[in-house]
Specification:
Strand 21 and strand 22 form a beta hairpin. Helix 5 packs parallel to helix 6. The protein is of the alpha+beta class.
Length: 427
Amino acid sequence: MSPPITKGYLNMELLRFTTAGSVDDGKSTLIGRLLYDSKTLFEDQIETVEKVSKSRGEDLNLALLMDGLKAEREQGITIDVAYRYFATPLRKFIIADTPGHVQYTRNMVTGASTANLALILVDARNGVVEQTHRHLFISSLLKIPHFVVCVNKMDLVDWDEDTFYKIKEEIDDFISKLDIQDIHYIPISALLGDNVVDESENMTWYEGPTLKYLLDTIHIGSDENLIDCRFPVQYVVRPRDDKYHDYRGYAGKIESGIFKPGDSVKVLPSGFSTKIIKIEGSPGELEEAFPPMSVVMHLEDDLDLSRGDMIVREGNIPHVKQDLDLMVCWMNQKQLKEGEKYIVRHTTQETKCIVKEIQYKLNISTLHRIEDAESLDLNDIGRIHIRTATPLFFDSYRKNRATGSLILIDPNTNETVAAGMIRDISA
């Protein structure tokens, strides 16, 4: 049975990680093994998995722990992003288990968009395949700070050291073209548990950490942008009760930076300057606020702010522009073409835009640019130029994942059709 939630649990550091790999690489089995061997499951969860496994004539199938939908369990595959929450004595975790199928690359983008760490599986028998390149590239594009490559099914290659290091060398060669700063490699057997929670007795040649130890100890304190103060206004709090007629607060989530009462700030788009007089959060007034806290700010002056406006520090202003260069992952069956119009959602702001130019799309396997692309198809990744109806307040995605990302929405169907990362102004 899982340990009870304590007061200390609420203050524990949270690590979000996404899993990715090709079909049948063992992602769900790995997460099931991690949960099972970490003793973070409830007894009824274990009983359910044992019962379903027995009804199928299988041994304990830990992959069932990640198959959150009935349809998934019946088909034996993962077809959507499945989330799981667990905790160890050192940390809390949110896992996004994403499908391995090529046609579900968009789900991988969804699961990875807020992750601290990408856990990428490679089948030791098959080695590095196109999906490995795709997942590494997308995770790099999304600026995930930490990578762990688990070479799985080592038991099926007789725990061979050369197989592991050949895969490591091939990935190292590929990522030399990418912006990946922190990457770790672990040889594992998710089915048998080797190097997942407990050290492997079959691979004594491996001297690195187990997966659980790495997840527990990897440093994520520097992952948040604590320099550029960005507070998009989500809602203006104005109680109608006469008792609180002087109350006016601005609610939202701190996307980056650290705000304190007394700070001089500027409000966009008006450009007016004022000071923060109070910040409210849970459980009361705060001496400082930082990401990802949701708070209510009170300002010294009675300014006309509304949803979509942004509070920033004076002397550190984001870009305010209508013309943007984006790297996008296209998520829709209908092609993206020049001249098409979409709705842009960026932080708490929403506006219209038009696609002015498709500059190129990428061959994921070679990272070569296809310069004469006339459209983007489902799961394509490319660089486009858009113009918005009203200015956005943004930073480059490289500098700030929160204010450098946006989504495009089809105005006719209300479907999300693309995830976009804003490029550096000078790039």
